[in-house]
Structures are given as structure tokens and as C-alpha cells.
Amino acid sequence: MTGCYIHIPFCARKCSYCDFHFSTNHSYQDKMVNSLCMELEMRAKTWNAEIFQTIYFGGGTPSVLTASQLEKLIGKVKAYYRVDDSVEITLECNPDDCSLENLENWKKLGVNRLSIGIQSFNDEQLKWMNRSHKAADSLNAVQNAKQVGFDELSLDLMYGLPNMTPEEWKAQLLQIIALNPEHVSAYCLTVEQKTALSKWVNEGKLVVSTNEQQSEQFEMLVSTLGAAGYEQYEISNFARNGHYSAHNTSYWKGAKYLGIGPSAHGYDQVERYWNQANNKSYMADLENGKLPETREILSSFDQFNETLMIGLRTKWGVSKQQLFKMLSPDEEWFKIVKEYEDKNLLVQTEENIALTAKGRLLADGIAADLFLIASS
User: Fold this and answer.
1) Is the fold of 2-252 the same as that of 300-370?
2) Nearest CA to 29 among 75, 60, 2?
3) What are the C-alpha distances in Å from 297 to residues 119, 235, 271, 300, 336?
4) Confidence check: pLDDT of 102 > 70
5) Domain limits, the chain
6) What's the fold here for domain 300-370?
7) CA nearest 169: which of 224, 114, 208?
């Protein structure tokens, strides 16, 4: 499976916790779309053998695009690349952008999956987050999407928020279950440097939740969604009846993906590239016929460690055969695996290594312990 990711670097406003690359200046949005089209055309020469099964518009906030801008981008992908007839086309969107008119336009253009950034059903929380919507907008967005005929909806929530009680988190989960989406993504609030949230925390204006509170809310997330029929197929992602995100699943399984746009990454299973995270420089490079990228060839150690890290996040775990094609671990590595197995933090078969529910709470630490480091 091969995917195409297109980064739309615009948002209506800056969320207090966000350190993603975007701008709130939309005056050159048309020019940026033209640059994205230039990059799509330039990269087609080396990606024309691939067939895209997924196209994912992320950001930023892709739902700020006009229908004609989105049509232009989808048209360029289909003009320069081979696209599967049953391609999954996902659009990340804010609830306040989900008007019936916008939804109908997206549907006509071939978008068949929406990822709606609800984040919270509490207006006070949305206010300090500086989100552009209110809780009522989220309810209307889901209702409108279903009315237009979108049957692949993913809703985003955040936990670990300041002063959020277990009772309030349970109420948020019950609210999202009541909306009956096929997919839920839930992420723990992280205090990133150089954000408004970081400033408030440092000044004592907001107190973030403790690790114990975050763990409690994570366990409630897994159990509550599980009881409602949602399978945790990746640490932060839950789906009913196999309605996984095909695009993100391809990442976790180590597939190739094309990245388009400022700050976007691409990977062909040998080399990785990442575009510069500066809108003006990105556009200037493309106008001068230059790809705005930095590249690196992944060593066997890099490939092993990345495959391990992302694979352990999923219900499928990581394939031993795939890992051991890259490198052969020593006895100490297998000893560490066995120690985690004895602690009921992971399970292994002849084919796979996967984390248990208990182990998923410690996923990053377990992966780090199993990384292989090249000797100097």
C-alpha cells in the first residue's frame, strides 16, 4: 500500500497547545496551492510506478481550502499519479467548517473519509485551547456529515487536560460514543515548547495533569470504548468493525508514502525526505525548479528501530521476519524481550512481538529498551 500525504499549512487561528507548522495568514493561499501542485508534478517522475491507495489532507486545517482549491489538488494527484479506483481520500476538518455546503462539495470531489477535530465537548476547555469552534458545532458537524452521506467519520478527542476529572472524561467518552462514529482518535495533551500552553504552565496559570491521572484516563478510554465495540488497533486509535484508517495504518506497517507541502515527510523504504517548514522559502524553491527538501538514507539500525517503534504501537505488533531481515539482534536483546514478556508487558509468537494492554502504557520506554545501537 502506498499513500500520498498533502500538508495544508493554514489554520483559522493558533491553538494554544499546537506546534505543528501552519500560518493564520491566508492571503497567499492560492499561491500555496499552486506550489503544492508544482511539487506534485516534480515528484511524479520518481513515484510514477506506485499506485496510491490513500490520499490524506492534513495540516494545519485542510478544511479552510475552497472547493476549487481542493478540486485542483485532487485533480493534480490523479493527473500525475496512478490512483486506485477505491482510494481512501481523507480530509481533516474543524467542526465549524462542516457546513452542509462544504460537506456536499467535499463529497462531490471524492472525499470519502473525514477526520473531525472535536478535541473536547467542554466550551471552557475549547476556549483556553483557542479552538475556533464550540461544543454545539461538533454536534452539528457530525449530524451534517451523516446527512450528506459520509459513512466514514473519525472523531478526535484529547485527554490529560488541566483540571479534568475522571467523571468529566467519562462523560466526554459517552458523548462521543453517542455520536456513533466508525473511528475515534484520542491523544494525550502534551506541553510543547514555544506554545502558549507552555508559557501558561511555566507561569503557573495552568496545571497539567500528572502521569498517574493520564494513565487513569487512558485506561478509562480503552475500557469505555472497548465496551462500546471499538477495537484499539493502535495506541491512540479505535475503530469498529474494521473501519481502520487505511492511510495511517500504512505508516505503522512501514509502507511507502509521498509527502507534499511545507514540513511534510516522505519515505520510500530506503530514503526519507522532509520539506522545509517555511512557507515562503518552500514556495520560492519550487518556483526556481528546486525541491525544498532534505534527504537521508536510513541505516539498518534506523530501519530496525523505526520498524520496531511504530509496529509495537499497533495490535498487529511487529514482524520478527521483517525486523531480522534488517539486523540480527544479540542474546541480550532476546533476554530483554523475555523479561518484558514475563512482566506481561508484551507477548511473542514465532512470527510477531506485540505489546499487551498493560504494555501500551509504556510503549515508548519498551521500544527504546529494544533499540539496537551501532557500535562506535
Assistant:
1) no
2) 60
3) 36, 28, 4, 10, 29
4) yes
5) 2-252, 300-370
6) Arc Repressor Mutant, subunit A (1.10.10)
7) 224
Checking 175-181 for CB contacts under 8 A at 24+ apart, the result is 175/121, 176/118, 176/121, 177/224, 177/225, 177/228, 179/139, 179/142, 179/155, 181/142, 181/153, 181/154, 181/155
In the predicted structure, residue 376 carries a pLDDT above the cut 60: no
| 2-252 topology per CATH | TIM Barrel (3.20.20)
Rounded distance, CA 124 to CA 144, Å? Answer: 24
**In 3D, which of 3, 130, 102, 132 has the Cα closest to residue 56?**
3
| Secondary structure (3-state) at 307 | helix
CA distances from 39 to 213, 292, 293 (A): 44, 9, 11
The reported pTM is 0.94
Return the C-alpha cell found at 277: 517548514
Q: Which amino acid is at 185?
A: S
Euclidean distance between CA atoms 308 and 327, whole angstroms:
12
Pairing of strands 318-319, 346-348: unpaired
Average pLDDT over residues 192-204: 86
Distance of CA 116 to the CA centre of its chain: 12
Cell 502504557 appears where?
361
* Residues β-bridged to residue 319: 352
Gyration radius from the chain CA atoms: 21
- For residue 122, pLDDT over 60 is answered with yes
